[in-house]
Design a protein that fits this description.
Number of helices: 9
Radius of gyration: 19 Å
Strand content: 25-35%
Helix content: 25-40%
Largest sheet: 7 strands, mixed
Distance between the termini: 22 Å
Structural class: alpha+beta
Shape: globular
Bound molecules: cytidine-5'-monophosphate
Amino acid sequence: MGASAPAYAKLNLSLDILGKRPDGYHDMRMVMQSISLCDDVSLHDSTVPGIRVSSNMSFLPSGSDNIAAKAAIAFFKALDKPCPDLDIHIEKHTPVCAGMAGGSSDGAAVLRLLRESRAPHMGREELEAIAAQVGSDVPFCVRGGTVLCEGRGELMTDLPPLPPCWLTVVKPDFPISTPELFAQVRTRSLRCHPDTQGMIEALQAQDLDGIAHRLYNVFEDVLPRQYREVMEIKHRLLTLGAMAASMTGSGPTVFGLFEDRDTAEEAADTMKKTYSAVFSATPAGPSV
Ligand code: C5P
């Protein structure tokens, strides 16, 4: 038996950090958006014992430290059933360590595929609760669409979709460690916060201008100086005609939001002269 599913990447339309929690995580308030850029995840029963993960990207972990394998293990643990022997293949298109939930979306695709084949009566809440054990962004990736994510990311409220627009996504060639960036938040106080309520109202009014003006990620505020290229990319996307531009998640990927497809694609072509990881995308809807 085999089945496959797309694993959509995400962008943060907004990202706010409300405070540190006793469990070491942070309370967040984020408007998350699925986009058309995706990996293809396929699942096959295997005759070889255990769970193996293969990918077109040879550097990804192939065993139980891959988030896709962790998702399968968590799924069968929740069902209180032994984990079957599985081959998971990930055809990767979303850049890794990018702030786009690439790994989390692969884990979420595995959960959706397993529910379909092994527990079709499992409710959305139960699947999302399993997802929360796998990683903070996995519940959103299970659900997809346009969602307000609070708590660690697992308290979700569906929002109206992002109105039609075009997204030019640029990932510079350096990683930013998520825990390190959270540590910066501890040591420095945040100067500004996104207007999350205004963002929600702009989505309700389908006001693309209002949404664009409220793109904001507090991590940009605490970005160490060595990552100033992120700000340069933002500036270039704005110069190339973006209505607004922002870093997504803990970076380093930056996206520009465009009203017009041609302008977005011309911006992508220009950015490709400097960066090898440049993508054109559109908003994607819910997955379940
Ligand atoms: O849950 P996940 O494995 O994606 O989180 C990666 C790291 O990011 C955590 O170990 C933690 O340091 C940090 N984090 C946090 N607060 C969150 C989400 C992640 O501090 N809400």
